[in-house]
Amino acid sequence: xxxxxxxxxxxxxxxxxxxxxxxxxxxxxxxxxxxxxxxxxxxxxxxxxxxxxxxxxxxxxxxxxxxxxxxxxxxxxxxxxxxxxxxxxxxxxxxxxxxxxxxxxxxxxxxxxxxxxxxxxxxxxxxxxxxxxxxxxxxxxxxxxxxxxxxxxxxxxxxxxxxxxxxxxxxxxxxxxxxxxxxxxxxxxxxxxxxxxxxxxxxxxxxxxxxxxxxxxxxxxxxxxxxxxxxxxxxxxxxxxxxxxxxxxxxxxxxxxxxxxxxxxxxxxxxxxxxxxxxxxxxxxxxxxxxxxxxxxxxxxxxxxxxxxxxxxxxxxxxxxxxxxxxxxxxxxxxxxxxxxxxxxxxxxxxxxxxxxxxxxxxxxxxxxxxxxxxxxxxxxxxxxxxxxxxxxxxxxxxxxxxxxxxxxxxxxxxxxxxxxxxxxxxxxxxxxxxxxxxxxxxxxxxxxxxxxxxxxxxxxxxxxxxxxxxxxxxxxxxxxxxxxxxxxxxxxxxxxxxxxxxxxxxxxxxxxxxxxxxxxxxxxxxxxxxxxxxxxxxxxxxx
Length: 544
Prior knowledge:
Layout: E1 9-10, H1 11-14, H2 17-27, H3 33-45, E2 49-51, E3 55-58, H4 60-68, H5 72-89, H6 97-113, H7 126-137, H8 141-159, H9 164-179, H10 183-202, H11 206-221, H12 225-242, H13 248-263, H14 267-284, H15 290-305, H16 309-326, H17 332-345, H18 348-361, H19 367-382, H20 386-403, H21 409-424, H22 428-446, H23 451-466, H24 470-487, H25 493-508, H26 513-525, H27 531-543
Helix pairs in contact: 2-5, 5-6, 6-7, 7-8, 7-9, 8-9, 9-10, 9-11, 10-11, 11-12, 11-13, 12-13, 13-14, 13-15, 14-15, 15-16, 16-17, 17-18, 17-19, 18-19, 19-20, 19-21, 20-21, 21-22, 22-23, 23-24, 23-25, 24-25, 25-26, 25-27, 26-27
């Protein structure tokens, strides 16, 4: 206990097999978990520790007194046993937030008070890696970036830039940078890392395959869906050859390829591939495995994006009890899924208690909490009070700028919502002003040809038409259309939506030919029952 966190050490750590083995050698007899608990009870009666139901607390002065009596070899053995016990106590799924926090704090304390050299024998101890990943898992992406920048730098100094442990820490740094809301910086980190991994340990090493997959994921998050799909398509045969067609990583790649295809405009193909991935995971991993549940959540989201709201709601409703059982009712994954379902139902009555739960469990500044507040503002605005909703949206944006930064994708999304709410409130000129300010910032962060920028240009044209400048909107859309065809393709939903806006504006002047050309494409790509298709059909009938 002298090298762990004084504010709370989990019982599971102090009764883990590495600790019992250390005690066995010290006592020279067999030691059980009950013996360890009895010893803790003795220390409690002597007022040297305090016992809670699940944790043990010890004063820092008592810890210091215990360490001062240790010989270097004893401290080395204690450090190693404590580190091994922390790793064995770490759950695969961090459903207990208090336990995860206690394990992280004890790892940081061990690094500060234990024999550091024991944590870097032939590479860093897994406990150091797990503590950083736990920070990221808990939503503290910024802290994880700082942690892995330090760990990877120390690894490079101690082990060398080409050591496998250094590369693993660099990969986790890139993961954390992306999780903190900077996918383009994550892509840059991963591209530099892959230049090293392709040489050592090689293109088909497990870490290299993982880094290629992570690169594809952040290419997608930065808006380059086609580039991400290309990386996944090149990765898939390597995974099948090295790991096997039914391996967990291979199945995950099919899952991610489906998401990128949907993002690139192939909605039906993406959903079909994802349905196949869900079936594979159910057969190989089981219906309750976290990866299976994750794939089901993604499938529900894609169905909702494709216009099948009823199917998405049904999938989320069947998924939520499983998530609560596997991850826990207050795990971020469960809370995010509750938010997705509440957004589809457009239910303020569901979103308000969810926001309260997230503030209590995750904290008021957690990205998921902020996202739910934004969704709640949007639903309120859609339900008839866009003025109050816009004010709430502005408050969310202020908090996102402070917590996530002005260039985080969530902050940009909130500003898009603010523009739409102002338009709903009868202020299209104000909406256009928000988007005009947003557009150059998006171009700087994501690049002028990214889907985010193209969508924003479409929204700006639409708001300008509502503000009384339909001619300027038509001209802007005609400039936008070649870029949409070139970057996204003619069948991408964003391209079709922009064509619909353009055709509607022309229809207002009596020219329905663009709508007549558009409608068969909408029926072919999105389906006859999709809201976009139905809207175009109604517009054409009205103009005729």
